[in-house]
Amino acid sequence: MGGLTPAWGENPAHVRQLLETRQCPRCDLSGADLRHSNLDRADLSQANLNGANLMGVNLFRANLSQANLENAYLAGVNFFAANLENANLQRANLYLATLVNANLTAARLQNARMVLVNGVNANFTRAKLNQANLSGANLIDVNFTQADLSGADISRANLDGAQLQGAKFPRPPDAK
């Protein structure tokens, strides 16, 4: 038994369905180990991925709208142009993830670790990023309209061209 064995278990039939068809809306994948899987264009809308390990997964143009990714390990994940609208990413680890052109409208990212994320042109409109760690993130041309970044660490983040209308910050952004 490795350190990745969850206290709860994913539904094995749902894991098989996802890997074979890339279609798994509303699936229970909580605690699943999906490291380095190719899930480009997958439909994971409303799926439960709480505590799942998706390190290095390719989710190019995937639909994760309303998905639960709370406490998920998402280091190095490719979310290029993915739909994460209304997704729950609270306490998720997105270290070095790619969020270029991703839609994170109204996503919940409280206490998420987003160190060195590449989020160029991502849409975080109305997203909740309270206490998130965005240090060193590349956030050029990102849309933070009405986003809540209260208590977020944005040190060394590049916010050039960012849309900040109505966004809540703990202090003026440390933009480069």
Keywords:
1 helix; elongated; 0% strand; Pectate Lyase C-like; disordered N terminus; little secondary structure; 176 residues; single chain
Short description:
The protein has 176 residues and is largely without helices or strands.
Q: Would you spell out the secondary-structure blueprint of this structure?
A:
Elements lengths: L11 H10 L155
Descriptive notes:
By secondary structure, the protein is low in regular secondary structure. It has a single domain (32-170), classed as Pectate Lyase C-like (3 Solenoid). 6% of the residues lie in helices and 0% in strands. The protein has 1 helix and no strands. The chain has one helix at 12-21. The chain is elongated. It starts with 11 loop residues before the first helix and ends in a 155-residue tail after the last helix. Residues 1-7 have low confidence and may be disordered.
Write down the secondary-structure element order: H
> Helices and strands: which structural class?
little secondary structure
CATH class: Mainly Beta
Biggest pleated sheet: none
Number of strands: 0
